[in-house]
Amino acid sequence: MLELQNVSFSVTDQDGKKKEIIKDLSLKIDDKKFVVITGPNGSGKSTLAKLIAGIEKVTSGKIIYNGQDITDMTIDERARLGISFAFQQPVRFKGIKVKDLLKLAAGEQYMKGACDYLGEVGLCARDYLNRDVDGSLSGGELKRIEIATIIARNTPFSIFDEPEAGIDLWSFKNLIKVFEKMHKEQENSIMIISHQERILNIADEIIVIAGGKMKARGKKDEILPELLEGTKCRFYQED
Amino acid sequence: MDEIQKTLLEEVAGLHEIPAGAYNIRANGALSSRNTTEHIDIVTKEDKPGIDIIIKPGTKKESVHIPVLISQTGLEDLVYNDFYIGEDCDVLIVAGCGIHNGGNRTSKHDGIHTFHIGKNAKVKYVEKHYGSGEGTGENIMNPQTIVYMEEGSYMEMETTQIKGIDSPDRVTKAKLADDARIVITEKIMTHGKQYAKTEFEVDMDGKNSSTNVISRSVAKDQSSQLFVSKINGNNKCAGHTECDAIIMDDAHISAVPEITANHLDAELIHEAAIGKIAGEQLIKLMTLGLTEKEAEEQIVNGFLK
Question: Which of residues 86-105 of A touch B (CB under 8 A)?
């Protein structure tokens, strides 16, 4: 179980002004839940994901994972405890191959599933394992490889930061299948930051974040209809 | 050959045992062993230290290994190796120098290699430099490579210097006739207080000649590197040079590309980039469970692979 206790995060802008991105946010995510976090651009969704992964550190508040306070832990310590993070903009490397990345992700399990990890995201292992994870791959390919590294890790808690961003329609259809499969298997907790109706549609629960606060939380059937009404959505109204 | 020399041989030539094909192993300034084949002859020079390697025209799929091993502290060695590669050959040449310095005196190896590559011949030339040893003496190498390429010839040159070499001053020069092409790939990692200077100069004299000079380097600690790449387009030709470097700690790196067009149809490009390891690369690998240090090693090793 992951729990955020009164988490705040602020940055100081160029003029020296303090800006609060996440405001006193508390929430709990139970094991084996499929949760989608949504909300307008700039609402703090991605920041929230990065705070959980340790890429950003909270200004105040606590993050508890399986009863352990991980607030002051580094990114890699959290990763080794079982938290995975898929980047919105996958990172490019010079000289690191797809298979290197998958090996690092899967560890000793690698030999068992090299083909499966890529197959799951609609890529043929034979064509991709020896490719460099660099600019020679398209945005969509990089995105799918990024997701494959999370599948390869197979950790109890995975965060996907806008997995639909930057991929083509065909890839998106496959992506939905990947998430549907993960949801069906219900082995691990999945937290997806997304605006996509089709992703929202497979969530156990939807959390709406706006202005750095949690505006709503509930079952898909309660939240989704109102979200789909667009600009009238009461969750998106600022205080 | 003792254990230290065997280790050096493995590092510089990737060899566990005596290689197949032609070879000449020089250990501590003297000939250790040699083998010639029907098509490849190796002859000791009479006027100065060194050897002539003569490869008969039309020799294909054969290799020559000429490693130099130094395990005696304070040894200073200078050799001239001349390669005569006949027309239409397709051969692999592996050279390299390994120094193990267990003492406090400077060990030094200067190798001057001259290649005469015949018409339409194809050569892959691999050169590795490696230094080890617990002694305080420096391991110095100053390799020089001069290449004369005849019409339609092709050379691929790979040089690697990963560890333990102090102040190398490397010079590589090539002169290309019509349709000749040379591709040079250099990989360097310096650490401690090391200094490495590499200088490339390619004269594209022939019509439709071309070159690509690629350097990838990592400078750690207080080490410094200077990369100079001069490409002269003296005819209708195409030249490209690129330096890509990772700077770490308190290191210094300079890249000085110099391209000169002396002909209207010379097309020359240079690219140089120096920067630290991208923070997001470290973060990505850390989200896979690697510590910051492990992530850094992974990125550097991949970069120099």
Answer: 87, 90-91, 93-96, 100-101, 104-105
Q: Is the pLDDT of residue A80 over 80?
A: yes
Whether the per-residue pLDDT at A14 is higher than 80: the answer is yes
CATH 3.40.50.300 placement within chain A: 1-82+183-239
Question: Would you say residue A112 has pLDDT above 70?
Answer: no
CA A53, CA B294: separation in Å to the nearest integer?
Answer: 18
pLDDT on residue A159:
96
Cβ-defined contact of A93 to B289 (cutoff 8 Å) = no
Q: Name the pTM for this structure.
A: 0.83
* Positive or negative: CA dihedral A99, A103, A106, A109: positive
Interface test with A, best of B246, B287, B293 (most A CBs within 10 A): B287
B27 located within any domain: yes
Total count of domains within chain B: 1
Pick the more confident residue, A237 or A42: A42
How many Cβ contacts (< 8 angstroms) between chains A and B?
A: 58
- Domain covering A1-82+183-239, topology: Rossmann fold (3.40.50)
Q: What is the pLDDT of residue A239?
A: 44
Q: Where are the alpha helices (DSSP H) in A5-138?
A: 45-53, 75-81, 98-106, 110-120, 125-128
Please give the residue range of the domain that contains residue B256: 3-279
pLDDT at residue A231 tops 60: no
Residue of A83, A93, A100, A101 to mutate, testing the B interface (most B Cβ within 10 Å of its Cβ): A93
Q: How confident is the model at residue B17 (pLDDT cuts 50, 70, 90)?
A: low
**DSSP states of B118-175 as a string?**
PTT-EEEEEEEEEEE-SSSS-EEE--EEEEEE-TT-EEEEEEEEEES-BS-EEEEEEE
Answer yes or no: do A79 and B287 touch at CB < 8 A.
yes
Whether B54 is in a domain gets the answer yes
Does residue B40 lie in a domain region? yes
Q: Is a pLDDT exceeding 70 seen at residue A237?
A: no
